[in-house]
Structure formats: structure tokens, C-alpha cells
């Protein structure tokens, strides 16, 4: 097995995208039928490579075939694991551990670390052995019951680039470091809802597909406001999804229950050197 840095090329980005499809069981993986989100996935991979070239690695077998990949980033002293995937046929052979070790070496100077982990038992074991605390999560999904959720209490408006200082300030308070350039990517591909008044500040990104991409706030009341506004902003009858809701986010569970969403146990959010941020819902890639 050979480990090499990911190159900032469409070819490497597509290789990692296909590895992720295969590892996560996406239909038609490796058959050349790219999903509608393929271009966005490649853009996200290249975004991380551009800003953190030393944090992205590919694993290849003796024939040169890619069998695994990992991406990580550092934002103001907070390290995050954006992706760790291994082809099913190569799992259990130390590929994932080797890739994780390279990303951890990249973040060795960071005091704080965050990982969003699937339910895969091997992944949870490796992250715990690396010193991370595992916090079980809930996934909420369904069609919003608008009448039951009720009107938003307080002002919540469409956000944009002018809100960068607010976003960075909330990030630093919750996770010790701003997301910085990741907000530029998130704004391109998601709707941003912002609340800012004398009671505090909060924000929520939600995609066109109705998936909450990232949320942070200075209080549970502000978090409830921006999440409710984001869910109500989805088209009538469209499905929504909120992932990586930890036990610390009971305010989010309450919103989901009022909205009529289905709850189920999912994976873990893992922290090292950092208490679980709250109120906060991480992004799977940008954390």
C-alpha cells in the first residue's frame, strides 16, 4: 500500500468521490452514473485540498488503484476530519488506520478536534483509540408539519457574505475556531438563515434538498429560532433532514418533534480537547 497526498485536480477529486460512493453504498457506485450532486462533491473535495493540501491523502494498492482516502482541515487551531473512506474489499487491512494517522499528524499541533462518525463499529473503535470522546447522535427526517411547528418567535432573515463576522464570532465561541473559508463554500450551496439581536446571534445553513448543513447559536432560544425558520423555508411537502444531533441538543430534538420529524439513532460526533458545543449542529465535512 502506498499513501500519497491528494492533488488539486479534477481526476483526484473524482477518484475520491467514487471511493466515497462505494464505501457508503451509494447505488451505481463505480459504474459511471454520477449523482446530481457529483459536481458539488468534487468542488468540496477540491476546496479542502486547496486550503489544507497537507491534510488530504489517497491510499493506493500495488497496482496503483485507489483503495481509500482521507481529508482533514485546520481552522484556527480546531482540527476536523472531513472524510475517511476505504473500499469494502480493502477494509480491515489497516488502510483506514494508516490514513487516519496521516491526518492526525497534520493536526498534531491543534488543541481541539472534531469528527462526525458513522455507525460503523470499526470507525468508532479507531476514533476512540485515537483519544476522542464518542457522543451518540440522532437523525431527524420527514416532512415538516407547519401548523404544529408554528410561527417563528423573533426575527430570522436571509443571510449572506455581510454576515461573516457574525458567523465567525459564533463559531469561535462554540468550537474555539471560526470556519473561515468554509463559509464561502457553504453559502454557495445552501440557504443561510441568520438571527441577531440583543439576546444573541445564531445561524443555520440548509440545502435545496432540505438538509441542515451547519448550525450555531449563542443560546438555545436563538438556535430554536434559526432552525425553525430554516425548516419552514423548505418548499411545501418537501422532505427535510437534520443529522448529528447529540444529546446536548435537546432544543433541536424539541423542534424536530414539534415539526413531526421521525427520530432514529445514527452514529457519533467525536470530540478531543473540546466539550461538545451547544447549541450546535455540525457539518459532516466542515464540522
TrEMBL record:
Key word Cell division present: no
TM stretches of this protein: none
Endpoints of the signal sequence: none
Domain N-acetyltransferase: 1-150
Record keywords: Acyltransferase, Transferase
PROSITE patterns: GNAT
Keyword Cytoplasm included in the entry's annotation: no
PANTHER family: PEPTIDYL-LYSINE N-ACETYLTRANSFERASE YJAB
Protein name as annotated: GNAT family N-acetyltransferase
Organism annotation: Streptomyces oryzae
